[in-house]
Amino acid sequence: MKEIIIFSHVPFSKRDHHRFGVDILKRNFSVKVIDCSAWIYKDHRKEFFSQYIFRSKEYISISCKEDFLELISKFNSPIVIDRLTYNNETNWMRKLLRKKNSLFVYSYLNMIPLPKKNNKQTTLQLFKIIINPRKIISKFIDTLQKKKCNLITSNSNICIIGGLALSKKLKNKNVINAHSMDYDVYLNIKDKPKNNSSNYAVFLDEDMVNHADYALLDVKPPATEKHYYSALSKFLKKFESQTGFKVKIALHPSYDIKNIPNLLKDFEYAIGKTAELVMNSSITLAHQSTSLSYAILFKKPITILTSNELIKSWLGPRIENLSQILNSQLINIDNFFHQGLDIQNLLKVNEKKYKNYLDQYIKVPNSPDLPIWEIFTKQIQNKQF
Fold this sequence. Notes:
Shape: globular
Radius of gyration: 22 Å
Distance between the termini: 17 Å
Structural class: alpha/beta
Strand order of the largest sheet: 3-2-1-4-5-6-7
């Protein structure tokens, strides 16, 4: 049976187990999930990840080079689903796996539109790097490692895409047309009875202050706990009173229930029910979450939220760009008392914009309505890569 290795630099959660179709892949392949976080991010592993690990039968953790060498000695020409970051260790792993005639697979599935940088933003970014020597070194190393990875790559790589946005940029000819991981969830619930009597708005939380990725990527959080949750709570309460819509919060999967900010506890919230909450809602509120896919698919009105902090952060241009692409109202939660809420405008859906977003970022037109990893399996079995 052909071997598949899923390599991850962060612990593989139960959510990842489903999203990467381990149970689907097991029907036709021998699957191993290799968690490299104990080696790559040993300083952060206990702090951020220990509670997320899903120790399935396929799960293996490695913590050093010796672990890796022993592991790959057992494989012969495996298919490698590469979820690794770029650094000396991961590029060394890629290089050794290439020598074993491995077939590398890269997924471009949960995409969001990114704004084009203007001259002012580029100049400001360069200035911030120049005045911080540590960032200059970090940026140089990051660029170098990505170039090293490109030198290791092969024309035989397979790319799975979830929208047209990247299709023209990919030089690789081995492309599998599919859809986003959120679309897999949509396929599972789209035919379930809908509760149209529910009159509520759903806010798509992004763990804006404490997301583990900020520490791992050495990125400054776009908002501070002191300001963000206070402003958000005030806005959501005012939104409820002005619109008559109760607000429910779809918490980000990275949240530990024990650590939910007290200000959010004033609202009904849930983890792992985002798609269902959006499906039965009247309106969706968000910053730039990939879970907006559900609102597009269920044709729910979308209102984009920003704040004074977010506008000044690296996330600000992304939020503004998303509101323009969707033709959705953009509300600053710090200034909404002056802006007011145009309820009729909030409930509008631009179907042309939604269709374009669907094609570009959620699902390649005419791709099969099957789970991603079933599409992948059929392509591997029927086509010589």
